[in-house]
Amino acid sequence: MAKPMLLPFMYGIILIPGFFHIFLLQNSPYERYVIHILVLFTVAILGRFIRQNTYLSIWCLLLIASSAWLSYTYGGLVSLAALSPVFIYPSMPGRFVQVNMFALHLGTLYFAMKSEPLSWRFGILLFLVFIAAILAYLQHISAQKNELQQTYDDLRRRHYELHDANRRILLFSKQVEGAAQAEERTRISRELHDDLGHRLIRAKMMMEAALHVIPTDSDKGMSLLVQIRDQLLTGMDGLRATVRRLKPPSEVTGIQALRIMLEEIGRENGIRTALSVEGQPYPLYPSLEIILYKNARESLTNALKHGRPDAVEIKLSYSENEIRMAVSNNGILPLLHEDFDNVAGLGIAGMSERCQVAGGSLQVELEPCFTVTTRLPVARQGEVL
Prior knowledge:
The chain is 66% helix and 9% strand.
């Protein structure tokens, strides 16, 4: 089907010259001329009902032939009606078909006007070329407009997709944070039960023993009371340490939180600590910072309990798509695989599960020193995945 906006021009270039040429008729019958003009106009109207490209080409050829015959028969202003097929070209599929159809139209019109004066003939042909050039330019502009519209639609669709992805990422980060907090609460409850709970039970038993001993042996009873006091003090220190390590201070996050934790560990245990950073640091989502902080704390706690090191180190490596944190210590290494399995069970499983929730992984190495490496995929804040 021809482009609807060009149909009025095609109809006009048939009817207007055809009407004015009536006044120039001399030898031709008026009625037959009107019938021929109406037949050409009917052929032009048939294009409104054509949908397939094959029929469109056939219709264009029929319009070229009928308009050229009319120009050959009557000449004069009717030659302008022979330009009407030029308005079909923008609807035809492919530049190759358009160029060939235009060449056929140009040649047919040239031979149809052989009896016309040379100036009139070349004027009509130049007018045909001018109209074809204008239509080609308009078609190019329309193609660019459609391309820009398509690009705009694609960008808008991607914007919605990225917005939805960002929303899902934020939701996922909250889920990761909730899962990490639930796992941390479980670990803390286990730690309080295994450490503080046992100390309180021991103090209770020693208190009962002191109640029986004091009436008969006051010195032994006082010794038991001193031991009970020491047990309670140790339990209180452990409780304070657990609460203090429960989460990083609210005013600091990321590298600063790790640095403060290392300073506290070094001050409380009298060991050397170090923090190094590779690459250019960038902001992380809170869920990833929580995982890094808790894994670092768990690794250092295990090292102090089982390795008895005199130096610990945290190394952060920032890459484009990954954040890597290696926590190492120079403490005692497990000598056998069985020992390593026992050590790996002390918090390693929880750290590994914490990493897997965020799509990362945990690695444990024995050489050259005991090192726990946390690897997490990252999406920088302010960027869309």
